[in-house]
Amino acid sequence: MKYDVIIVGAGPGGIFAAYELSEKRPELKIAVFEAGHALEKRKCPIDGDKIRTCIRCKSCSIMSGFGGAGAFSDGKYNITNDFGGTLHEYLGKQKATELMKYVDSINMAHGGEGTKLYSTAGTKFAKICLQNKLTLLNASVRHLGTDVNYVVLKNLYEKLKDRVTFYFDTPVEKLSVSENGYTVYTSTETYECSKCILSVGRVGSKWMQKVCEELEIPTKSNRVDIGVRVELPAVIFSHLTDELYESKIVYRTEKFEDRVRTFCMNPYGAVVNENTNGIVTVNGHSYEDPAKHTDNTNFALLVAKHFSEPFKDSNGYGESIARLSNMLGGGVIVQRFGDLVRGRRSTVSRIEEGLVRPTLAATPGDLSLVLPKRILDGIIEMIYALDKIAPGTANDDTLLYGVEVKFYNMEVAVDENLESRYKGLYVIGDGSGVTHSLSHASASGVYVARKIAEQ
Ligand SMILES: Cc1cc2nc3c(=O)[nH]c(=O)nc-3n(C[C@H](O)[C@H](O)[C@H](O)COP(=O)(O)OP(=O)(O)OC[C@H]3O[C@@H](n4cnc5c(N)ncnc54)[C@H](O)[C@@H]3O)c2cc1C
Predict the structure, then answer these.
(1) Range list of H helices, 42-139
(2) Residue 207 CB less than 6 A away from ligand 1
(3) Cα dist. 262→137, 249, 282, 306, 358 in Å?
(4) Residue 241: its pLDDT value, please?
(5) Hey, whose CA ends up nearest to atom 20 of ligand 1?
(6) Which pLDDT value is given to residue 65?
(7) How far is the CA of 69 from the centre of ligand 1 (A)?
(8) Closest residue by Cα to residue 76 from 39, 135, 117
């Protein structure tokens, strides 16, 4: 079968590439291959009752399927060049911002209207942070919420399904360069295309690596972020979250001068499991609908680890630490901050006696047996620093879930068009290593679609 354009991966990158291409060039024959399920079939089996922790499904519904890793995410679209990816290094800051705003307008036109756009512009918290050795990063953030995000995806699918051929539950196994373009191999069929967009996200990192090795596309990788997810009563952070929703705050540790940052803040949200290639880590989300709010806010505290020669496998390092927590806790470990600083493990009764009700069923344990000292020291220092702007953060009952690992896909060598060394082979979204967020991944899809449409 032959297509003009084949897109591998139906995450935000792939969806927005398909959307923009079908808008600009409706005559093109476009196919999207997705390893995971269609949107309505995506369901994580964890029900908090019979199934309380990750059972390692073959295709993780949190990470894979129409909507990609973003489908059950909090739907926070950060419009900024300060974090979320380095798209601006390829297309310039102005273009990157313009594309992120365009993505926002599409989301608003497909069910997102009425959701709130928060901004750090002119906030008093920038000064308060600086006075306490913390830096607040600039951003506007559209919070769709897990519920509205789902509606937007559903509407986008309704629009796309008659214009684009979707192959769900169909992982692409291999990609080869052919005479007039590319050949895509699934377990049963082969498909030809003139142009190919790879948008396989974090879950496709190993596949992407294999493709790059086979096609001799240069890559580099040397970073992984490791840390914990903090959960505390929402009131402790409400002065910040009510105004900014998400505050990206950076702290430079006194001991090692490492950078620790807050990441993915979910006011009134829930902590969830995340399964990346069989390794269970934590993440979080929250709903727009107040009826679905919890009493807690959660956010990650991450320490960036950069490696230099000779070690190259930064993701392998992160995986090993996550595996250690899976080995000790059977999955994710939870510990009270008070237990951690006293050098003792948390137990079921200590957690039950605490004032913070965990929103994820995790195994009480000791994170100091899992996280390297340097990382743990940085996290503890950051918790005390945050306690100055949000008193109560360092309370004994604050819960820490571990581990949270932010794997960075290796950076694939692409040019200013996000095109690899092969003409017509584009690599976008988190799978390219260029983006790490919904807005950047989506913007990269629009960008490449426009490049193809112009040709
Ligand atoms: C729980 C959770 C919450 C998050 N919250 C936020 C948030 O609030 N804000 C934010 O900015 N970011 C958030 N993120 C990150 C965000 O979801 C990603 O940055 C974004 O989805 C990346 O988009 P993408 O299209 O590049 O890749 P993905 O969304 O990962 O999509 C890639 C798709 O490709 C498919 N695929 C992979 N390999 C193959 C193959 N060989 N063949 C066929 N298909 C394949 C996968 O199944 C997947 O569906 C969150 C992530 C998680 C897991």
Answers:
(1) 88-91, 93-107, 125-131
(2) yes
(3) 10, 5, 14, 18, 19
(4) 95
(5) 438
(6) 96
(7) 3
(8) 117
**61 C-alpha to ligand 1 centroid (Å):** 11
Instruction: Name the DSSP letter for residue 419.
Output: B
Identify residue 20 by its one-letter amino acid code. Answer: E
Q: 378 and 256 in contact (C-beta within 8 Å)?
A: yes
Q: What is the pLDDT, as a whole number, of residue 330?
A: 86
Instruction: Give the per-residue pLDDT at 46.
Output: 79
**229 within ligand 1 shell (Cβ under 6 A):** no
Instruction: Give the residue carrying structure tokens 């993701």.
Output: 315
d(CA 65, CA 168): 7
Is residue 251 within 8 A of residue 382, CB to CB? The reply is yes
pTM confidence score: 0.84
Check pocket membership of 85 for ligand 1, CB cut-off 6 A.
no
User: What is the Cα–Cα distance from 408 to 134, expressed in whole angstroms?
Assistant: 24
> Which residues, given as ranges, of the chain have pLDDT below 70?
48, 222
C-beta 299 within 6 A of ligand 1: no
Cβ atoms of 333 and 364 within 8 Å: the answer is yes
Q: Is the CB of 12 under 6 A from ligand 1?
A: yes
Radius of gyration of the chain from its Cα atoms, rounded to whole angstroms: 21
Distance CA 11, CA 439 (A): 11
CB-ligand 1 contact for 437 (6 Å cutoff): yes
pLDDT at 397: 98
Tokens found for residue 343: 């050098």
Of the chain, the end-to-end C-alpha distance in Å amounts to: 22
CA distance 107 to 142: 10
Cα–Cα distance measured from residue 260 to residue 252, given in angstroms and rounded to the nearest whole number? 6
Report yes or no: 197 and 176 within 8 Å, Cβ to Cβ.
no
Ligand 1: centre distance to CA 64 (Å):
7
For ligand 1, atom 7, name the residue with the nearest CA.
76
Question: Beta strands 333-336 and 399-407: pairing type?
Answer: antiparallel
Tokens at residue 106, please? Answer: 């599409």
Q: Is 438 in the pocket of ligand 1 (CB under 6 A)?
A: yes
Both structure tokens of 198: 């790879």
Counting atoms of ligand 1 from 1, which one is nearest the CA of 36? Answer: 47
Give per-residue pLDDT as tens, 232-242. 999 999 999 99
CA 141, 274, 353, 237: dihedral to nearest 10 degrees? -10
198 lines ligand 1 (CB under 6 A): no
280-290 b/e (C-beta count within 10 Å ≥ 16 → b): bbbbbbbbbee
429 lines ligand 1 (CB under 6 A): yes
Question: Which residues, in sequence order, are bridge partners of residue 41?
Answer: none
